[in-house]
Structure formats: C-alpha cells, structure tokens
Amino acid sequence: MITTVTLNPAEDKTFTVTRLVQGQVNRIDSVKNIAGGKGINVSKVLRQYGYDVRALGFLGGYTGKFIEDYVRSIGAECFFTYVNGETRVNINILSQDGYVTELLEPGPDIREKELSLFFHDFEQGIADSDLVILSGSAPEQVPATVYHDLILRARNKGKKVILDSSGVFLKESINACPYMVKPNIKELEILSGRKIKRIEDAIGAALQIGGRGIHHVMVSMGAKGLLYINDREIMYAKAPEVKAVNTVGCGDSVVAAFAMACKQEMSNEELLKFCVGISAANATTLESAVIPMDKAEELMEQVKIIRY
Ligand SMILES: Nc1ncnc2c1ncn2[C@@H]1O[C@H](COP(=O)(O)OP(=O)(O)OP(=O)(O)O)[C@@H](O)[C@H]1O
Ligand SMILES: O=P(O)(O)OC[C@@]1(O)O[C@H](CO)[C@@H](O)[C@@H]1O
What we know:
Elements: E1 2-6, E2 10-17, E3 30-36, H1 38-48, E4 53-59, H2 61-73, E5 77-78, E6 81-82, E7 88-95, E8 100-103, H3 112-125, E9 131-135, H4 146-156, E10 160-164, H5 167-171, E11 180-181, H6 185-192, H7 199-210, E12 216-220, E13 226-229, E14 234-237, H8 250-263, H9 268-283, H10 293-302, E15 305-307
Parallel strand pairs: 1-4, 1-9, 2-7, 4-5, 4-6, 9-10, 10-11, 11-12
Antiparallel strand pairs: 2-3, 7-8, 12-13, 13-14, 14-15
Helix pairs in contact: 1-8, 6-7, 8-9, 9-10
C-alpha cells in the first residue's frame, strides 16, 4: 500500500484559449474539469500502473464530493478528513501561443479541530503503507511546520517519505529529512538560498540538501529534464523531445514514478529513465496525470544519462 497526502486538493479547470489578453474579455474555446491536486495526481498515475493507493487529505463541500467520487472511481481507497469549508477550484489556461497560466486558490479555512482530526487519520492511514507521499501546498491556516510533523511521525513508524511541496511548507519541513524530495528549480533556489542558472549550480544546491541527510534528491527542470542525486551518484537526464500539450502534473508523474521504482527496486539508471519517460509522456496529453503507457515506454528508451 502507498499512502498519498493532498492537504489542498483542487478541482482543476483547464481552459484552452487562442490568446489570453489581460484586462480584456477572453472567451474560452474549451473547458475540462477534473479532480486534481498534487497527491491526487500521484494517486492517479499509481492506479494506472496497478498499485494499491490510499488517499488522505482535506476535502469539503461539493468540490470535495466531486474529488472523492473520482478517487473512488479509479480504485484508490478514500481516507479523507472532511472539513466545513469548500475544496478549491484551480484554473489552468492553455493558450495557443504556448503560454500556460495557472490561477490557484488558497484553499478552504481549516479549523484547529479539523487539523487534529487529520493528524489522527494520518496515523491510521499510514499504518500498513511502506511509502508515504506528501504533495503540494496546504491551506493557509495550516501551520507551515505541518509536513515537518508528518515526516517525523511517518519516519518514527519506519515509513519512507517522499516530499513534493513549495514555499514555506517545503522550507519548514526539509530538516525532518524525508527519504526523497523533488524540488523544481524555483523550489531549489528557495531551499538552498542560491540562484540557479546552470546545471552545476543545481548540482551544488542538490548536494547541499542531500548533505542534510536526505537520501534522494530529484530536481525537475521542465523540458530540460531531471537531475537525480543520491548517496552514491549524480545523474542528469535530458527530457526527450515531445509535442507538449499540457505539462501540469509532470512533477507529480515524476513522484509517482519514483515511488514505483522504489517498490520495484530498480537500479538508479532504470529509475531515472522511468521517471523521465513517464513525466514526458504526461506532457503529451491534455488531461494531467494520464500516462499513455506505450508512449512512456518508448520515451524511456530514448533517455540519455550523463553522470557527473
Ligand atoms: N515539455 C516537456 N517535455 C518533456 N518532458 C517534460 C516537459 N515538461 C516537463 N517534463 C518532464 O517532467 C518533469 C517534471 O516537470 P516540471 O519540472 O515542470 O515539474 P513541476 O514544476 O513540479 O510541475 P507540476 O508542479 O506541474 O507537477 C521534468 O523534470 C521532465 O522530466
Ligand atoms: O497549490 P499546489 O498544491 O502547490 O498545486 C496545485 C496544483 O497546481 O498542482 C497540480 C499539478 O501539479 C494541480 O493538479 C493543482 O491544481
């Protein structure tokens, strides 16, 4: 069993437009509404590959019900904590000139009682999981130390924890030493306090984080690819060229692929190819975290690894 945690799930609305013009009326060409949030996306990918998944996090209102129904429909176990507020709606606007604009709501108010209930659910929800995946932002009232606390609780029970968050939630949790962390370049800059311009800068910053006792650091660099640092190796893989339709959820696909690679005890090289192939395949579909599996296999074969 793999447990995913999405403290701030969302209904993701994807709008396609010819061109988005700020300060003017913009008419939408097409709309797609799906259940999302980083951990929900991770669960989606894991279910496609047949893994047992339990989904935790806060859900509320009509949007919450929509997400719960979806998670159940893909065969993942729902173990959500229900709150009084309404789960958010996020908007992702894809325009034909290639720009992707995301509008992300902060999320519902979370009361102290609801937070305590979540901690209780968390202890139960991870009991039979060997891997715990903590993904995304959290609603504003949730303390910035929430992931720090969850990582320690899970580690105390012998679980491996994968962390993919941003801003203060990432910064405040890194000292709790998750098993793996996946910052993108912007997040790596926040974590390391350094500007990252070249691959050497990214390697230096990732090593600094690894040096704090985190066994696996994966730095995602969009179309440029993925840097992977562990106790023994520094490896970089350029992403294969694909016709990108929607890159939302690429990071979540990396996280899901890493979790599967751990379960399968892959070599480092296989693991990196698997992560790069699956995330590049995700970019080719309009719906986030839907992996064309044959395409992913084909892309994995094309991945070239450079060792540093
Ligand atoms: N245009 C692309 N072509 C090929 N592969 C891509 C492309 N964009 C992303 N990827 C792959 O997906 C990985 C993760 O992407 P990215 O760095 O955008 O993650 P992210 O910022 O965490 O995204 P999100 O928060 O939307 O999940 C990259 O490291 C790369 O391997
Ligand atoms: O606000 P967060 O939690 O950082 O990001 C939320 C989000 O943008 O991330 C996913 C893609 O990775 C989307 O499904 C979702 O809307």
